[in-house]
Amino acid sequence: MAPNRLLTSRAIIGEFYNRLTVAPAGWIGRYAMKISSNQASESYGWLGMVPTMREWVGGRQAKDLRENGFNLANKDHEATLEINVSDLRRDASGQILVRIGELANRAQSYPAKLMSALIINAESTTCYDGQYFFDTDHSEGNSGSQSNDISYDVATPTKPTVEEMRDAILAGIQQVIGLKDDQGEPMNEGATQFEVMVPISLWGTAVSAVSLQTLGGGATNILPNLANLQIVVVPNVRLTWTDRFAIFRTDGETKPFILQEELPISVDAIAEGSELEFKEKKHWYGVQWAGNVGYGYWQHACLVTLT
After folding, report:
1. Is the pTM of this model over 0.85?
2. Starting from the edge strand earliest in sequence, which strands make up the sheet with 193-198, in order?
3. How many domains does the chain have?
4. What's the CA gap between 185 and 196, in Å, rounded?
5. Closest to 208 in 3D by CA, of 168, 171, 237
6. For the chain, which terminus, N or C, has the lower number of CB atoms within 10 Å?
7. What is the distance between the alpha carbons of residues 102 and 106, in angstroms, rounded to a whole number?
8. Distance (Å, rounded) from C-alpha 163 to C-alpha 243?
9. 3-state secondary structure 186-241
10. Does 116 have pLDDT greater than 80?
């Protein structure tokens, strides 16, 4: 019988990149603008909206752009998997490659972990305008005071009925659509796509609220029948909420969040012929990614707290 062949680092790294290309991107791409970076930090000058059209009376009236800014620093992130050489030699069933695939999936979903933390902390963390991302008193230029942090009364906040959830979702969407830019113009009047991000405990109720054609007592559900409006429910297992959810507009040019990337996900190995192998009979496979996540347009998001 021929001896088992040692699983090589080349095969392992190849499997990592192969799995990385097919790993699901999830909701990140719909909620965040991906920005490539080539320095330690990036400066974002968030500009006000362009002028609205007017009748040409008395010549042109030029309007400048209002500007707010913030810096987002890149950070290094890593994960390292240790494998015994003896396990490489004995792995006839391919279990190590399965684990490598899992490592790739974990790396691919890491930005979702970071962004989920942003969402959870958005009621107490400032964004580009100096206010909390979810706040009741945003104000820019001629917008007036505006809120993207609302409450909705229900009988039991942690267990709303389908009808209550429907009305709460509609209230959140209505709040987003009604927001104005720094020139006092409607900012989301053309919005057609919204996503409702919920904790697992509210998932079933939220799905029913946006998909059932009729509700209790035979009443017609307006949410699945709103003309030119698409509403999708997204469960997020990382959310620690029990009595709230977030609404995000996903069809805007600018997104609610930023995914800044300096170094794409990559993997390196200390393997065949290394000092680690010689002394300890082990190989290391290290994943790295450099970048960060940050807040974008609060005007494309709304937190709804059930009270």
Report:
1. yes
2. 149-152, 301-306, 244-249, 193-198, 230-235
3. 1
4. 25
5. 168
6. N
7. 6
8. 15
9. ECCCCCCEEEEEECHHHHHHHHHHHHCCECHHHCECCHHHCCCCEEEEEECCCCCC
10. yes
φ, ψ for residue 120, nearest 5 deg:
-60, -40
Which among 212, 221, 134 has a CA at the least distance from the CA of 170?
221
Least Cα distance to 195 among 256, 126, 113 occurs for 256
Inside any domain, residue 58: no
Angle at 30 between CA 137 and CA 113, to 5 degrees: 80
Residue 186 tokens, joined: 């409607």
How is residue 77 written in tokens? Answer: 């992130």
Q: Which pLDDT tens digit goes with each residue over 69-90? A: 788 999 999 999 999 999 988 8
**137-168 burial string, b = 16+ CB within 10 Å, else e?**
ebebeebeebebbbbbebeebeebbbbbbbbb
CA distance 129 to 263: 28
From residue 216, how far is each of 45, 60, 115, 126, 238 by CA, in Å?
49, 57, 36, 41, 31
| Residue 238: closest CA among 129, 109, 143, 152 | 109
- Cα-based distances in Å from 150 to 46, 153, 239, 256: 24, 10, 18, 17
132 neighbors 124 (Cβ within 8 angstroms): yes
265 in a structural domain = yes
Give residue 158's domain range.
1-23+31-37+78-307
Q: Answer whether residue 276 is part of any domain.
A: yes
The region of weakest confidence among 44-48, 136-140, 205-209 is 44-48
Q: Is residue 141 part of a domain?
A: yes
- Nearest to residue 284, comparing CAs of 76, 19, 98, 103? 103
For residue 28, the one-letter residue type is I
Averaged confidence pLDDT in the chain: 90
Which tokens go with 275?
């000092």
